[in-house]
Amino acid sequence: MDWVSALILMVGLLMVLMALGLPVGFAFLGVNIVGAYVFLGGEIGLGQMVRNSVTALTNFSLVPIPLFLLMGEILFHTGLAYSAIDATNRLISRVPGRLSIVTVAGGTMFSTLSGSSVANTAMLGSTLLPDMLRRGYHPSIAMGPIMATGGIAMLIPPSALAVLLGSLAGVSISQLLIAGVVPGLMMATVFLGYILLRCTLNPALAPELPEDRAKAEQMSTWDRVRPFLTHVLPLLSIFVVVVGVMLLGWATPTEAAAVGCAASVVAAVGYRALSWQALAKALMETTKIAVMILFIIVASTTFSQILSFSGATRGILRLLSGIEIEPFIVVLVMLGILLILGAFMDQISMIMVTLPFFIPLVGLFGIDPLWFAVLMLICMEISFMTPPFGLLIFVMKGVAPPGIRLGQVYRAAAPFVLLQLLVLAMLLAWPVLATWLPGVAQSLR
What we know:
By secondary structure, the protein is mostly helical. The chain contains 23 helices and no strands.
């Protein structure tokens, strides 16, 4: 079978199974079984597929995924995250759109402790949204920052998705985790600037109640600062340790994740917030997500191997190598494909469908794989808020009061999607924004 027919068989069957509503992991499993039987030699090929699956799962670099997930779940289910958000709320006062600013600041802080954008959005939405709407905040300035800040957890370590992408793309996981810090902070800065500008020009979007002003005047500086010192700084020290040991080369991502996970448990014990019920809930949620991710890793790895063995990957590379095209145009095309797919697929499905084709192209055109991996993460963050199927849009709708319509959620997300595209354009124009911090880390080792 020629490579074009092989490509049509594999990708076409995948699209048909996904269109029928089969979960993406099972769709890839079905395609892999067919591909292994056709291209790897019948029953012998099926046996080889099983051996490849075992090899994919016994990769030590995947260990940070469940550890990073558990780290955030412990802080979430013990209530420490909520205490940190409340402390941030007390600290920030007398600024336009105060609670929206608290959302971005507190959400970015929690992103440094949680590898889950969904958990981040759900926590911010359930904690801050009802209060903002009660105070008369416009839904767009209330829900938009929550969704946008929730997505930052995908960039700032600990990011389980970054670990997954790095392991599948063959990119250094520690460098990719470190590379996400600057773009993540850029996102938060752009969001803060937009909120301040919009609420300054139109204070009616985020009105300040007289009782809030009186309460802020009565509260001493120490009353505002003390909760931040006791509930936020100790948790931020976990992030500093996790990133610091990787930055200095003292620990691998797996060891750093283990340190962060243990520190989360110690923090929960220190605040007397750890219970058997909370620990069991955190372990159960971590297990659910980790098993799903590991199953998808097996399916994606096998899919890439079968594509390569069938000759489809080599055929595409030969075809493109004969075309004179600038590497930057190739990057733009790949990012455009990701942004289009993001409107209809979840992030892990996007990785599985595109990576077997994108990574060989990155090597063929001499594109920096670390820079491209960061661009992929940003595209997937944007897809979290892209209609019609952006996951954070539906998470937001789920935690919002019954009167909030889906159209309002879409409109709230739109300005922040444009801001994320702005950050993506900045990284395209200045790749050093993604590669500078990993370079510093490399020089310190």
